[in-house]
Design brief:
- The strands form 2 sheets. Strands 1, 2, 3, 4, 5, 10, 11 and 12 form an 8-stranded mixed beta sheet that branches. A 4-stranded antiparallel beta sheet has the order 6-7-8-9.
- The protein has helices at 8-12, 16-20, 26-37, 53-60, 74-84, 123-136, 209-218; strands at 41-45, 66-71, 91-95, 107-112, 137-148, 157-166, 169-178, 183-192, 197-205, 221-227, 241-250, 253-254.
- The protein contains 7 helices and 12 strands.
- With 261 residues, it is an alpha/beta fold.
- The protein is 25% helix and 35% strand.
- The protein folds into 2 domains: 8-149 and 208-254, Rossmann fold, CATH 3.40.50.150; 157-205, N-terminal domain of TfIIb (Single Sheet).
């Protein structure tokens, strides 16, 4: 079996909120980002339907934080716009590739939310993304990278299994893994109660923490904080996910945000 697809937004726009809205405790996430932004502007790359950006913009009004989001999927952005229609806050949206059309800034915080970095399907493009982020951060600004931690040993394939059970349908998941190239091509198949099947293919290029740190360093960014979630729980060798905060060097000195244990 082979799957290859990188048009993630248009493939998942109609189910994204249903499947992923509860991925994080949004209060923890917005608090984390508001503290880092310190009254500045947050740019979310791959903003999608506004899962994080909309509550961040709503809460940010009180703290002078503004939010900009870019996504290559018009379908995703249409859903974001519909959700904030008539509100007294606004996420400014940009339709375009998050690297090629990245807004100029400057930004206090740039966010790559859960695995968004891995949607860039080469190490070169991931590195270029971090370089462009560094150029758009204001002095003392921060990049937040949120990714899963790859296992030390990976299978060549992940056999079909039930990913989730939903009203009137079951979602199956299967994938093929290329550990050498660090690529995963998969597909979610929705089996509807009337027998219909809907396939949603996806692809990622994963990277280790050490590789992400190296890309950030090459871009002139240095690690400030690392947590296992937005509640700032301690990161350990067993943590399946990392929230890594990188800072921009200012006058050869690194501005480091205070850690909360």
């Amino acid at each position: 079996m082979t799957y290859s697809h990188n048009n993630y937004g248009d493939t998942f726009a109609d189910v994204y909120d249903e499947w992923y809205l509860d991925l994080d405790n949004i209060d923890d996430c917005t608090e984390f980002l508001i503290q880092l932004a310190a009254g500045g502007t947050v740019l979310e790359l791959g903003v999608g339907t506004g899962r994080i950006a909309i509550p961040l913009a709503e809460r940010g009004v009180e703290f002078g934080v503004t939010v900009v989001g870019i996504d290559s999927s018009a379908n995703m952005l249409e859903r974001l716009e519909a959700k904030q229609r008539g509100k007294d806050f606004r996420v400014q949206t940009v339709l375009g590739h998050m690297v090629q059309e990245m807004p100029d800034g400057p930004f206090s915080v740039v966010l790559l939310a859960y695995n968004t970095l891995f949607n860039l399907l080469s190490a070169n493009e991931q590195g270029k993304c971090l370089q462009k982020v560094a150029a758009r951060l204001m002095p003392g600004g921060h990049l937040v990278v949120d990714c899963f931690v790859p296992a030390s040993e990976l299978p060549d394939s992940i056999a079909s299994h039930v990913q989730r059970t939903m009203l009137n349908r079951v979602v199956l998941s299967e994938a093929i893994v290329d550990p050498t190239r660090q690529l995963v091509d998969g597909v979610f198949t929705e089996v509807h109660s009337d027998g219909r099947r809907t396939e949603r293919p996806w692809s990622i290029k994963f990277a280790s923490i050490a590789e992400i740190d190296a890309m950030a360093s090459s871009a002139g960014l240095h690690l400030e904080q690392r947590w296992c979630n937005f509640a700032r729980d301690r990161f350990t060798d067993e943590s399946p996910r990392h929230i890594s905060v990188y800072g921009r060097v200012v006058n050869n000195l690194l501005r480091v945000s205070p850690r909360r244990e």
